[in-house]
Amino acid sequence: MTHQTQEDIALRKALDSADDFRYSHQISGLNEETVRAISAHLNEPQRMLEHRLRSLELFLSMPMPSWWPDLSSINFDELVYYASPEQSEIQQDWDKVDPLIKEKFARLWIPEAEQRYLAWAWWQMDSEVVYHKIKEKRAEQWVIFEDMSEALIHHEELVKKYFMKLIPANDHKFMALHGAVWSGGTFIYVPQWVQVNEPLQAYFRMNSLSGGQFEHTLIIVDDDAQCDYIEWCSAPKFNTRSLHAWGVEVYVWKRAKMRYSSVENWSINTYNLNTKRGIVEDDGFLERVNWNLGSGVTMLYPCSILKWDRSRSDQLGVAVAAKWQNQDTGSKVIHIWKDTASTIVSKSISKDWWIATYRGIVDIKKSAQWAINWTECDALLMDDQSISTTIPHIHVGNDSSTVAHEASAWKVDDTMLFYLMSRGLSEEKAMTMVVNGFISDVVKKLPLEYAWELNRLIEMEMEWSVG
Known about the structure:
Layout: H1 6-16, E1 23-28, H2 32-41, H3 46-61, E2 80-85, H4 99-107, H5 110-117, E3 120-125, E4 128-133, H6 136-140, E5 144-147, H7 148-154, H8 156-162, H9 173-181, E6 186-190, E7 195-205, E8 212-213, E9 216-221, E10 226-234, E11 242-244, E12 247-252, E13 257-265, E14 270-273, E15 275-280, E16 285-293, E17 297-300, E18 303-306, E19 312-321, E20 326-335, E21 341-350, E22 355-364, E23 372-381, E24 387-396, E25 402-411, H10 414-421, H11 427-443, H12 448-461
Parallel strand pairs: 3-7, 6-9, 7-10, 8-11, 9-12, 10-13, 11-14, 12-15, 13-16, 14-17, 15-18, 16-19, 17-20, 18-20, 19-21, 20-22, 21-23, 22-24, 23-25
Antiparallel strand pairs: 1-2, 3-4, 5-6
Helix pairs in contact: 2-3, 3-9, 7-8, 10-11, 11-12
């Protein structure tokens, strides 16, 4: 058994344990009444209610995806589509947050990290934001960082221009569901020339039994601007199914730079079905760093659309498939115009007989002359029974572009462990060193504070890997 410190055990207990929060609103069942109730509770404009109702019609008319992992255990009528903690207002003073909520986040050490490093902090419990603190410097630069539901009211025209344009409700069945019942999430607008180098952070916690969380993230980085954003997700373990169907849209305009990092650490009863898509203009750069741990089933394939000349995208991802987990993840990149470039690096770890799958699409259009793509898929198998699969799809529409794809799979064997142990390491430390070395290329893309926490989560996922 992998050795764990008291802090590791405390963190895992905090992540996996549900808390007896008081809720002022809980809306269950998937029907028109539920959709209208969510919209009314959020005091939305009429056009958003109409959007929700159209999305519900689409969802009900669409078949379940047949090529994905098995989703038959989802009972849409039993899910809680909106859960509102009793705390009725977003707090900017940590001392005024509901004590139960404050205790939960304090056990995750988030306040300490925020005080040391963050530009802004943002925490959502179930369907509503409970805490939001800003740095005055960023507010003076006209950077907008708000709850998505609030932004719909305060910045209605800006939201109307971009909301669900990159990922419309008819994209697939679960995006139609998202369009019908979404709530909360993050809205970011960085004005032209403004650089936000300190990470903006959001933390999403799904705590209710049979919970559904459907936050929507919309990020707009204007010409010559720069933004760094990181979000964390977690949920407790229940004996009933939970569903997370997130929507993320990122717009990176001319010469802008955006780094989007996501650490998703759901519980094994959670279906994690997300859609993330970004579009990049001339000389813009979008970097994604994705971590997927914990959930029973994950389907996530972030997409970058390189729309104009010299736009670039890097996508780095780590998926850990431990006991009872099916991690079906990958990346998509669409090259539309000339001199575009993209990199995809995917790392997967499989253990205890379970499954990690990479599904990728590289689509270079005829108009994307001299485009470049490099894709690397690496799999680490912790035993003889676990499964790792790579399913790439590559389409090149011209003869001036360059595409390279490489994949590797290897198993941690006794010889490798013996070599490290002969240098004085215990078997547990040797295993941890192998895993950390395997994912180091992606870990180093995160700020030091986050990389340290992430290594601890990986070590906890590796529990029972040896011995």
